[in-house]
Amino acid sequence: MTGIASIKTLVSESLDRDLKQIGKKVLNKERLSFDEGVILFEKGSLSYVGALANWVREQRHGNKTYFNRNFHIEPTNVCVFSCKFCSYSRLYAHREEGWELSIDDMLNIVKKYDDQPVTEVHIVGGVHPKMNLDFFITLIEAIKQHRPDLHIKGFTPVELDYMFRKAKVSVAEGMQLMYKAGLQSLPGGGAEIFHREIRQQICDDKVDAEGWLAIHKAAHKLGMHSNATMLYGHIEKFWHRVDHMERLRQLQDETRGFNTFIPLKFRNHDNEMSHVTESSIVEDMRMYAIARLYMDNFPHLKAYWPMLGRQNAQLTLSFGVNDIDGTIDDTTKIYSMAGSEEQTPAMSTNDLVTLIKQVKREPVERDTLYNEIRNYQHENLQQLEVNPILN
Fold it and tell me: Which residues pair with 66 in a beta bridge?
């Protein structure tokens, strides 16, 4: 655990006046301003922001590091939108290059886990014009009927906005219909960078920042929780990152509906932004650390291990992160197709527990809403039930 004395020494010995002031505010649990967020990106060394972020993390969560037992369903990678950073989707005009799953196909994926203690199915994919609101309501109802205890987390605002507009329903009406069918929470995808200056260049044809935030706000009003992401490390400037986090922080002040913030590293393989150099591991860790310091009203900070790779995900646990996602399964292709380290992303519970313990953290299985299911700190890993995906 990071001691308060060592953190106070770090802050007091800082040679930079701005960083010293920011450090004092962090120790006093005061909110950082927009300008201070930018200063951290411009001036904050990895050691400085990392130590502060780790202190905040341990103040909130101690050594606990969360994961869940989940699996992903990706209904299609056919999409009507053409985001320049995307290596995953295939335009509808070229849909023969992609995949399209039927409701029966997806229900069969769910049935594969009937005898396994998964708690969540995560459903997200491309925007297919034939997979409309009625289609997904039918899917959700079928999953709930088959396995009522399985938490359904699904659909980004990019998907939902298209469904609602096509069905000619308002955001409030559309979210009510999905909620009634059995949708329980929203993932954080599709946020990218909120500022229009960047959005116009990388994803101009899909839902804008205001639309993204409105859908999450509508979900929160129904009592649903959601996550939030930010795609960083491409053409954005530091202040664009802070602007993005500020908009999320403001909505969280209003609704308290977000569970976790997830910075997502831009990957440049096989997309229209392949000429953009990816961020370094140092910049990745600074991003996580500064997010933990700035996003003071977000209870959790998650690193998505399939995107970073296992060792880098371990490293984030010293830079503010307290969640590394779940067991997932090798059906998720969004990051593997973009050149991530994990080409077939699947870890067993044993793998996750071992990964967390290797860096002296405490592995805790959670459900989607961060209720603790099982603490593995004193478990003998050899005694865990053997299972190729979830042991």
Answer: 323, 364
DSSP lists the bridge partners of residue 151 as 120
The set of residues, in sequence order, having a beta carbon less than 8 Å from that of 200 and lying 6+ positions away, is: none
Say how far apart CA 262 and CA 356 lie, in whole Å: 18
Chunked mean pLDDT (size 10), the chain, 391 residues: 81 89 96 98 97 97 95 89 67 62 96 94 90 96 98 97 97 98 97 95 92 98 98 96 98 98 88 87 97 98 89 96 79 48 67 92 97 91 48 43
Give φ, ψ of 276 to 5 degrees. Answer: -85, 125
Q: What structural domains does the chain harbor? A: 4-61 (no CATH), 66-383 (3.20.20.70)
Per-residue b or e along 213-239, where b marks 16 or more CB atoms closer than 10 Å to that residue's CB? bbbbbbbbeeebbbbbbbbbbbebeeb
* Own/partner long-range contacts of 86-92 (Cβ < 8 Å, ≥24 apart): 86/271, 86/338, 87/267, 87/269, 87/270, 87/271, 87/337, 87/338, 87/339, 88/126, 88/333, 88/334, 88/337, 88/338, 89/126, 90/126, 92/128, 92/129
For residues 282, 287, 290, 295, the Cα torsion angle rounded to the nearest 10 degrees is: -160
Residue 65: name the closest of 284, 387, 316 by CA: 316
In the numeric block, the tokens 């649903």 are attached to: 224
Query: How many Cβ atoms are within 10 Å of 323's Cβ, its own excluded?
Result: 27
Strands of 258-265's sheet, edge to edge?
Answer: 70-73, 120-123, 151-154, 185-186, 225-232, 258-265, 300-301
> What are the counts of helices (DSSP H) followed by strands (DSSP E) for the chain?
15, 13
Amino acid at position 167, single letter: A
Q: Give the three-state DSSP class for 324.
A: strand
